[in-house]
Specification:
Strand order of the largest sheet: 2-6-7-1-5-4-3
Number of strands: 14
Distance between the termini: 46 Å
Low-confidence stretches: 565-578
Order of helices and strands: EHHHHHEHEHHEEEEEEEHHHHEHHEEEH
Oligomer: single chain
Radius of gyration: 29 Å
Helix content: 40-55%
Mean pLDDT: 87
CATH class of the largest domain: Alpha Beta
Number of domains: 4
Largest sheet: 7 strands, antiparallel
CATH topology of the largest domain: Nucleotidyltransferase, domain 5
Number of helices: 15
CATH architecture of the largest domain: 2-Layer Sandwich
C-alpha cells in the first residue's frame, strides 16, 4: 500500500470525534463529494472499455447461441421465483421448470466446450487491441484524476479502490456500480516516508497536526481525569489554497490510547457517516513500527477455536474453545441481545408494511390530475421504483409546489413521513448500538485469549458463498440466515487475529475438512444432521458436543501442523468429553 517504504509492523488506531466546534467542514465535504464524482467517472470509463473489449472477444460463431441459452435460463429462473413467491417454496410445477434449467445448463456447458477453440483463437487475435484498450483506460483514468479537483491524497485513494474493485469485478463477472452522494465519505492524507509520532504533536507538519496530550490522559487512575485530558484537536489538510497554503479541517478528537513512541504515521483518514439523523466522525491513523511485537508462544499453552453460530438456551453460541490443558469453554451473544436484534427486524418489517399503502394512495391520487411540471420526474420515480427515499424526495419538493385538491393526500404523506422517520431512526440507532456492543464482546474475548495462550488455531473457513443468493433451481439452500448475520464469525475471527498480531501471539488457520463429523475419540467419520443435532452419539460409544469435537480436531490438526511434541499433561488425544 505504501510502496517500497512500507516496512515494519503496521497497526490501525481509531479515535472518536465530537461533533462540536468543527472548522473547515465545507472544504472537507467538497473533497468527499468530489471523491464520489471521481469514482463515478472511473465506473463510466470501466464500463465503456469493458463493452469495447466484449465486442472484440465475442466475435466467434457460437456466441449468439450461448447468449440465447443464457437468456432462456434467466427467464425460467425468473418464472420459478415468481411461482415461489405466489404459492410458497414448494409450489407445484417448479420441478418441471427446474428440469428445464438443468437441461439448458448442460446444453450451455457442451456448447461452451465446443466453442472453446474458437474463443481462444479470437482472444489471440485481439491481444494487441486489448492492450490498446488497457492503455486507453489508464490514460482516461489519469485525465479524470487531473480534472477532479481533488487533493492528491484523495484521488490516490479513489484510484486505488477502483483498481482493486475492477479486478474483483472481472474475477466475479460483475459490474462496478456508481455511488450516490449522500453526505457520507472520507478525506485522507498520506506520508510516503512516514511522519514520526512525536512530530505530529509539535504542530510543525503541514498535513497533519494534533495538539499535545499529557501523559496523565492514559496513566491517571481517575477515569474522569483521563476522559478530560484525552480531549484534543486534530488539524488535517484537506486541500490547498491558491497560494499553495494548507486548507485545514479542525475537529475535536478523543485520543483515548497512546500511539507507540517509535512509530511513524503513514496515513490519516477522517470518516463521516450517518447514524440515523446524526453524523458520526472517526479518525483512523495507520501507524507503522520498525520492531514488531516479539513472539510469546514459548512456554504458553495452545488453544483450538471452532467458530460458527448455534442457538442455545442462554443465547447464540459463536465460538467454542479447547486448550492443551484439558480446559474448554464457549462464547455466546446473550439472549437479551438476540431479543434486541429481533426488535430491529420488527421495526424494519413495520417500515416495509407502511410504505406500499401510501405509495398506492399517491399513485391513485395522481391519476387524471394536473400536477406542476417540477413534480413530474419525482412522480415518475415513485411509479417506477418502490423506494421510500423517492417518496421522501417528492414530499420535500411538493411542499414548495402545492396544487389544487392535494390537501388530503398531502396530509396523509406528512403523517406517513413522521412515522417512517421515527421508526427508521429507532431501528438504525438500535442496530448500531447492538453491533458496537457485539464488537466489544468479541474484542474482550480476543484480549483474554492473547493474555493466556501463545498459539491460537482457527479453522480456515470461507463464508462468502453463504451470503450469496442461490440459483432458483437449487432446492437445498445453504445454511445461513439471520443467526449467521448476528453471529458474524468473520468479524470474530478478524478480532482474534488482530489481537494476536498486536501482542505477538501466533494465529494459525487450519485447513481441515470434516472437523464436526470426525469423532475425536475413534476417528470415525459419520454422516448425520449436524444442523439439527448438537450432541452426537458415535458408533464407538462416545457422546460429545459437536462444537467441542470440532475444537478438538482443530487443536489436533494445528499441533500436528506445527510438529509439536506433546507432553503427557497436555495430551489432546486424551481430552475428556464435554
Amino acid at each position: 500500500m505504501f510502496g517500497r517504504h512500507s516496512k515494519g509492523f503496521v497497526q490501525m488506531y481509531e479515535y472518536g470525534c465530537r461533533n462540536t466546534a468543527i472548522t473547515g467542514l465545507d472544504a472537507a465535504l467538497d473533497q468527499m463529494e468530489r471523491r464520489v464524482h471521481l469514482w463515478n467517472r472511473f465506473v463510466e470509463i470501466e464500463k465503456g472499455i469493458r463493452q469495447r473489449a466484449r465486442d472484440l472477444l465475442t466475435a466467434y460463431p457460437e456466441y449468439q447461441e450461448i447468449k440465447e441459452l443464457q437468456r432462456r435460463i434467466a427467464s425460467v429462473r425468473a418464472a420459478i421465483i415468481r411461482r415461489r413467491r405466489a404459492e410458497g417454496p414448494k409450489a407445484p410445477g417448479t420441478e418441471d421448470l427446474r428440469k428445464q434449467v438443468l437441461e439448458s445448463k448442460a446444453a450451455l456447458m457442451n456448447l461452451k466446450t465446443r466453442a472453446e477453440p474458437n474463443r481462444n483463437e479470437c482472444f489471440s487475435c485481439c491481444k494487441a487491441a486489448l492492450k490498446a484498450l488497457h492503455e486507453l483506460r489508464v490514460q482516461q483514468a489519469k485525465q479524470a484524476e487531473h480534472e477532479s479537483g481533488l487533493h492528491w491524497c484523495n484521488y490516490g485513494d479513489v484510484r486505488q479502490a477502483y483498481e482493486v474493485a475492477r479486478v474483483r469485478a472481472m474475477r466475479t463477472r460483475t459490474e462496478l456500480r456508481q455511488h450516490e452522494w449522500n453526505g457520507s465519505g472520507q478525506v485522507s492524507v498520506r506520508f510516503q516516508r512516514g511522519l514520526p509520532v512525536g512530530t505530529v504533536f509539535t504542530g510543525r507538519d503541514r498535513r497533519l497536526q494534533i495538539d499535545p496530550v499529557p501523559e496523565e490522559a492514559w496513566t491517571s487512575p481517575i477515569r474522569s481525569t483521563r476522559r478530560r485530558l484525552s480531549r484534543t484537536t486534530v488539524r488535517m489538510r484537506v486541500a490547498s489554497s491558491t497560494k499553495h497554503r494548507p486548507v485545514w479541517l479542525e475537529i475535536p478528537v478523543v485520543i483515548h490510547r497512546p500511539m507507540p513512541s517509535d512509530g511513524v504515521i503513514r496515513r490519516a483518514s477522517l470518516i463521516r457517516e450517518r447514524v440515523g439523523l446524526a453524523w458520526r466522525y472517526r479518525l483512523l491513523l495507520t501507524v507503522a513500527q520498525v520492531q514488531a511485537p516479539s513472539c510469546v508462544s514459548i512456554g504458553r499453552p495452545s488453544v483450538g477455536i471452532d467458530l460458527g453460530w448455534r442457538l442455545m438456551p442462554n443465547g447464540l453460541r459463536v465460538a467454542f474453545w479447547v486448550d492443551t490443558r484439558e480446559r474448554n469453554g464457549s462464547l455466546s451473544i446473550p439472549a437479551s441481545d438476540l431479543e434486541e436484534f429481533a426488535k430491529v427486524r420488527g421495526l424494519c418489517s413495520l417500515l416495509g408494511k407502511s410504505f406500499p399503502p401510501v405509495r398506492s394512495a399517491v399513485l391513485g391520487w395522481l391519476t387524471g390530475r394536473h400536477t406542476p411540471q417540477a413534480l413530474l420526474p419525482y412522480f415518475a420515480n415513485v411509479k417506477q421504483r418502490q423506494s421510500p427515499q423517492d417518496l421522501l424526495r417528492l414530499l420535500e419538493l411538493w411542499q414548495t409546489h402545492r396544487c389544487e385538491g392535494d390537501d388530503e393526500i398531502f396530509a396523509e404523506l406528512l403523517s406517513w413521513r413522521s412515522r417512517h422517520v421515527h421508526l427508521w431512526t429507532w431501528a438504525v440507532n438500535l442496530q448500531d448500538q447492538l453491533i458496537r456492543k457485539r464488537l466489544e464482546l468479541f474484542r474482550r474475548f480476543a484480549a483474554g485469549l492473547v493474555k493466556e495462550y501463545g498459539t491460537v488455531f482457527l479453522e480456515d473457513f470461507d463464508l462468502h458463498w453463504l451470503s450469496r443468493t442461490p440459483p432458483a433451481e437449487v432446492e437445498s439452500f445453504p445454511i445461513g440466515g439471520k443467526y449467521r448475520v448476528i453471529g458474524a464469525p468473520g468479524i470474530l475471527r478478524r478480532a482474534i487475529e488482530n489481537a494476536c498480531r498486536r501482542t505477538g501471539v501466533k494465529a494459525i488457520r487450519i485447513s481441515d475438512s470434516k472437523t464436526t463429523k470426525t469423532c475425536h475419540v475413534c476417528g470415525r467419520v459419520e454422516e448425520w444432521n449436524a444442523g439439527k443435532e448438537l450432541v452426537h452419539a458415535c458408533g464407538c460409544g462416545a457422546v460429545w458436543d459437536q462444537d467441542y469435537n470440532a475444537a478438538v480436531q482443530i487443536l489436533r490438526a494445528g499441533l500436528a501442523q506445527l510438529g509439536e511434541q506433546q507432553s503427557p499433561e497436555c495430551d489432546v488425544l486424551r481430552l475428556h468429553e464435554a
